[in-house]
Amino acid sequence: MTEQTDVVVIGAGLAGLVTARELGNRGHKVVVLEARDRLGGRLWTEDRLGRKLELGGNWLHWTQPHAWAEVTRYGLDVSRGPRSEETYWLAGDEVRRGNLDDFMALIDPGMTRLLEDTMKWLPRPDAPLTNGDLAEADQYNLQEMLDKLDLSVDERNANEAAWVGHFNAPLDQCAYVNALRWTAASSGHWHLMHEASAIYRLKDGNDTLANAIAEDADAEIRLNAPVTRVEHNNDGVTVTYGGGQQLQARKAVITLPVNILHKLDIQPALSEGKLAPSRERTASQGVKAWMRVGRRGTPGPIKPFFAYSAQDKPLSVIRTEFIGENDAVLVGFGADGNRIDVTDKAQVQAAVDVWRDDLEVLEVAGHKWGEDPYAEETWLIQRPGQLTKYHAAQQASEGALHFASGDIANLWAGFFDGAIESGLRAGRTVHAELKA
Ligand SMILES: Cc1cc2nc3c(=O)[nH]c(=O)nc-3n(C[C@H](O)[C@H](O)[C@H](O)COP(=O)(O)OP(=O)(O)OC[C@H]3O[C@@H](n4cnc5c(N)ncnc54)[C@H](O)[C@@H]3O)c2cc1C
């Protein structure tokens, strides 16, 4: 006889783990099926380069209410990377050096003008479609909005590089509305947005959060259990996974990243409102690169720094995240996974040489998220039109199927916070349906 349960949750990333906790701890029998051999999904902490590194999601902030509630709930310690003592940026091919305030002053006019209408378009970032005219703004990509500002070459380079750091994609593919959403979630202040998205991290690694939720959840989590088929009707769901095992449940919660959702065999098929954005794909195709560097020639300490180049370089941003006696571990971001192999030391060295030929790359670490069959994307950055066309349909349940993912959240979509928000919502709605 086929195994029975109340709810199957597909995926043990943050969205799936939170969903499982909410339902399991309300008395429902929950089984989580996870394709990988580990928890966390796009949250992935590993001991590499002598440090605990986040190969996936990294930073969180107290302006992210769902994420911070978890920090408080589990008593997790928060720390930050070293404060930058110098900042490098490019003016044409010439390298400029100053402090972070100089760089911030350089990008401030562009950022301020680009984002001045943020709260008009998104008066309620927690309900992103509140302004019924948002489709008007959602037709533009970020590049064309930056071009309209007619910035000097220096300012333009600097603004573009900063946005690549945020958006991990070619800017002409990113919806302008992503920038509005991030800024609106920071109450309209771009400096705060910058801080919220890239400074504070969990001291002992983000896996402490995933593990804490999993331990707290009265649910059975099965790793190495890729789901291959989902059949559903109004009465329930049959899920096929692993080597052909089956589970029957009253409800299933699917937490797959947008880019791979259309590849899962679901019968009857999902609505076009979910399949179309998945086939179109998100814009999120960039890289995150980790590297341990030392001084070329004479060994010595490395001052904490930030460096911004231009959007067409393999890495547009790098910065120190950990400082050692004679080395430092840097993190970098680039717009396109086809331009650089983050696991190839020579390619990473060439990217660093753009700013600094005094640093030698000693070791590298990274993950090719675009080639990862269980993600095929980094963090959510939508293309123009996708938010206003698909958001409501992406969140909607379809019969016995419910959906949760950081990619379809309201407030901090594309962040840990969004994944948790979305897991909380799925937990609440599925519980209400099961009770009824
Ligand atoms: C490089 C990188 C940097 C980031 N930086 C930040 C950051 O600094 N701050 C921040 O807040 N966010 C960041 N993010 C985003 C954040 O990591 C994600 O938004 C969040 O972790 C998504 O959680 P999720 O549960 O929605 O999706 P996922 O974590 O992707 O979970 C989905 C799960 O489903 C599993 N799965 C897929 N297919 C199947 C299948 N067929 N059967 C069973 N299981 C399946 C996957 O293995 C995965 O575990 C970053 C992401 C990346 C990749």
From TrEMBL:
FAD binds at E34, A35, V227. Keywords: Oxidoreductase. GO terms for molecular function: oxidoreductase activity. Residues 14-429 form the Amine oxidase domain. InterPro entries: Amino_oxidase, FAD/NAD-bd_sf, Flavin_amine_oxidase, Flavin_MAO. Its cofactor is FAD. Substrate binds at F333. Pfam families: Amino_oxidase. Gene3D superfamilies: 3.90.660.10, FAD/NAD(P)-binding domain, Guanine Nucleotide Dissociation Inhibitor, domain 1. PANTHER family: AMINE OXIDASE, AMINE OXIDASE [FLAVIN-CONTAINING] B. Belongs to the flavin monoamine oxidase family. This is FAD-dependent oxidoreductase. It comes from Arthrobacter terricola.
